[in-house]
Amino acid sequence: MNTEQWKGLAGQIATPAYVFDLDGLRARVRRIRGALEGRAGICYAIKANPFLTGPLMGEADSFELCSPGEVRICERAGAGREQMVVSGVYKEESELEHFFTDGGPLPLFTAESEGQLGLLSDLSGRYGCRMDVLLRLTSGNQFGMDKETVRGILNRRAQYPQLRFLGLQQYGGTQKKTAERITRNLEKFAAFTAELEQQTGWRAECLEFGPGAPVNYFDTDHYPGDEEILQALSACLDNLSFAGRIVFEMGRFLAADCGTYLTRVVDVKENDGQSYCIVDGGIHQLNYYGQALGMRIPEILRLPGESTGTVRPWNICGALCTVNDVLVRGYRAGDMHPGEVLAFCRAGAYGVSEGSALFLSRDLPAVYFYEKEKGLRPVRLRTATDPLNSPAIQ
Predict the structure, then answer these.
(1) Number of domain units in the chain
(2) Does any domain span residue 393?
(3) Counting C-beta atoms within 10 Å of the first and last residue's C-beta, which end of the chain has fewer, N or C?
(4) How many Å apart are CA 112 and CA 387, to the nearest integer?
């Protein structure tokens, strides 16, 4: 949406708030899908923004779920089990059992360790179910298993008669700096799969790969743009030796652009020659990957947009009682006034769920969806957090 559209909407929004442009979101997914030309599926990692789970039904092929809460969100959004990829470094037996006891089909599970594999094998044996599993390959951290462990499991796969090893999963980290790094990681992943087939006789049917495609958040960012990323992925798919199904797991790359965080100026002041703008939101509600104490400047729209007075650097600070609550330092603008709204762009991924939302017991922001046909509509009202910071049991 452009500035003029935002001017028309700002008066309808109770700040602080998140607004998610669903038309833009769906258009983005379709553009990515068009570039892939049917050669790869799309799995949405809902941790990036759980609110987008429902709107992406019918757009994404599957949904990666890393907690029991994310499973419940996906179920409420109407996802079928065949669309669920139950992942996560910690899987709790009691939370997994409901998949086996309600008589429905099983989702696809990932195994991040030999211990998790044993848990999945025990559950499938106990309930007499055959289960599809992706083995997660580590990228050098606490997630997944190293190559030797994966190779050993596949050599012993007869010990897991209830499990069907469908393929491998790997996520190499976020905000990759070049398209070449993304495609090189995918090529290495596919090459390891071919190596496993030669060494163990096991053939992967599916590779789920998190490319870590970047988002340019700040005025100093120089990550490759969307077209460069998509062209590189397309060319890589053309030359990849793997003959099975490839699924790209995406979160930030899908969600970031559709979201805007709106916060209202409530006070302005000058302290020792520095200009300060106080807003009703703060760092507990807005999280940009790579931000460091407000030193990097994202795209900000001023609503209604008029600016008078001398342009000078402003420190935009939030409502928390901590000196760390600085959203941006050195934002250059003319006079700022109480009542105007600042719209922080590309806030669709992680900001809504990753901040320290309970600090100071301030309300959770409202959440709105926007569609051209349906207009602006609230999907979560401002929600008090003080009950969560008070004893619930006397």
Answers:
(1) 2
(2) no
(3) C
(4) 36
